[in-house]
Design brief:
This protein has 449 residues and is an alpha/beta fold. The chain contains 21 helices and six strands. The longest helix is centred in the middle third of the chain and has 17 residues. The protein starts with a helix and ends in a 5-residue tail after the last helix. The structure holds adenosine-5'-triphosphate and magnesium ion. Magnesium ion binds next to helix 11.
Length: 449
């Protein structure tokens, strides 16, 4: 009988008598691993972790087992978690080096290899080091790729069902003239005059990042943009992409971009882009890091043709966004979507009331008294005012239409939701306004001419 068998059998027998014996389970898991029974090792580490969920050695063992089973994403998650808890075992860094290598992130592979060896010189593995150096030299110019790049694509595209054809356009958006102009420059004029743009070697499309307080029309405008140019519209919440099983997020992201490319002209709208906020070098956030690289790759359009695609991103927290997004060719325009001014509020109220049962409503008066209200706030005011008419309508058995006074009463009691955001934004604009990115906020707040 081979040696390993007796060792494993003995441990298994001992466990029969003492099934929840943590040291025994740990030893069995290590022994499985030692004899290259990786699947069994993985299962046993997991079993032991059920008894002692915080045990870092067990987690490290599990990460090694995941890696050995080719589950690099899962391994990475565990490694990240250990690092986040200040666990710094030398072999953790070596494992991280191997994971980075598997993910074609050769620079970090080398860095972590060096950390591991500096902590424990017996971990040195010259063959691995040669491999890393070779890959670095080969890939000086290459960009990180999706893990699943060689997988065959689903013909219809996975994401065709997310395509929309919005039936609103710029006339449904009050105010925001500067944003509309910027969008016109990037996509509307180019689509109308493609020959001129081509002659000048200009691409049609690009990336614009909209930021501002909630409810001020970022999503609404994105949708209206697609309607304005009669283009397809795809809305993606970054949190949804991140929620998809991690190993697939990059592939899914690629398919989203591909769906946009096959359906150009197309407005591709990414909401909550700040969810991709962590700095790319932040090891604790490997999920984000891969996705960011993939996102930038797709956005750059070096490998792919993004002609006719307008990528709009929206965020309430631009300060969390990796600066790599803001480079030319990516989201190179950062536009502040401020709370609507008086004229815009009047327009928004007119739009909101267009199909509502109203009597005489002077939207000018309501616009006047709703300084700081977002579009969503105005919508809430209209909804509340309509609700306030319901009891009377029931009593009179007919729709009692809204009047100016109803709206005035509700507005007077309503607290606008933009103030808190503006307070936060003010601090960033005053104290962390690198290269003047947030000058628009200062101007809006009258802090700078
Ligand atoms: N400028 C506007 N013109 C017309 N309606 C608007 C405008 N701004 C906001 N609205 C109305 O308010 C609602 C909320 O706006 P929207 O969802 O676009 O805000 P947002 O900026 O995307 O907010 P968030 O940051 O919370 O995602 C819209 O559905 C729309 O009805
Ligand atoms: Mg939105």
């Amino acid at each position: 009988m081979p040696d390993y068998n007796s060792e494993i059998l003995q441990l298994q027998a001992a466990l029969q008598y003492s099934p929840n014996n943590l040291p025994l389970l740990h030893l069995l898991a290590n022994t499985y691993f030692k004899y290259q029974f990786y699947t069994e090792a993985e299962a046993t580490y997991k079993e032991a972790l059920l008894i002692d969920p915080q045990n870092k050695e067990l987690k490290l063992g599990l990460a090694h087992a995941f890696y050995a089973c080719n589950k690099t994403d899962a391994a990475h998650i565990v490694v990240e978690e250990l690092l986040a808890h200040q666990y710094t075992a030398p072999s953790l860094y070596m494992l991280l080096a191997r994971l980075c290598f598997a993910e074609k992130d050769y620079k970090n592979a080398k860095e972590n290899y060096e950390i591991a060896v500096s902590k424990d010189k017996f971990l040195a593995d010259n063959d691995f080091l040669v491999e890393i150096n070779h890959a670095i030299n080969q890939n000086k110019l290459a960009v990180p790729m999706s893990h699943n790049a060689d997988e065959v694509e689903d013909e219809d595209g996975f994401f065709t069902e997310i395509l929309e054809k919005p039936n609103i356009n710029f006339s449904d958006v009050g105010g925001m003239e500067n944003v509309k102009e910027e969008i016109a420059l990037k996509i509307i004029h180019p689509l109308r005059n493609p020959d001129i743009y081509k002659a000048f070697g200009k691409k049609i499309g690009g990336g614009i990042l909209l930021y501002g307080p909630p409810g001020c029309g970022k999503t609404h405008l994105a949708r209206a943009t697609a309607g304005e140019i009669n283009a397809a519209f795809i809305a993606v919440g970054i949190n949804d992409v991140l929620d998809m099983w991690m190993g697939n997020s990059e592939k899914n992201l690629h398919e989203i971009f591909d769906t946009a490319r096959t359906n150009a002209p197309c407005v591709l709208f990414f909401d909550e882009v700040d969810a991709l906020g962590a700095s790319r070098s932040d090891m604790r956030n490997a999920t984000n890091r891969f996705l960011i690289n993939q996102f930038l790759d797709e956005l750059d359009g070096v490998k792919y043709n993004n002609d006719g695609i307008l990528v709009l991103g929206a965020t309430n927290s631009p300060w969390y966004l990796d600066t790599a997004f803001k480079r030319p060719g990516r989201f190179d325009r950062l536009i502040f979507v401020a709370p609507p001014d008086k004229i815009a509020r009047e327009k928004i109220l007119d739009i909101l009331l267009a199909e509502k049962p109203i009597d005489k409503v002077d939207t000018k008066i309501i616009a006047q008294m709703t300084e700081g209200f977002s579009g969503a706030d105005l919508k809430a005011v209209v909804d509340l005012a309509i609700e306030s008419k319901i009891p009377e309508s029931i009593r009179q058995n007919r729709l009692v239409p809204l009047n100016t006074n109803d709206l005035r009463q509700v507005s007077a009691q309503y607290k606008p939701t933009t103030r808190e955001w503006l307070q936060t934004a003010r601090n960033y604009a005053l104290y962390s306004n690198e290269s003047g990115s947030y000058n628009d906020i200062l101007t809006y707040l009258n802090l700078k001419k």
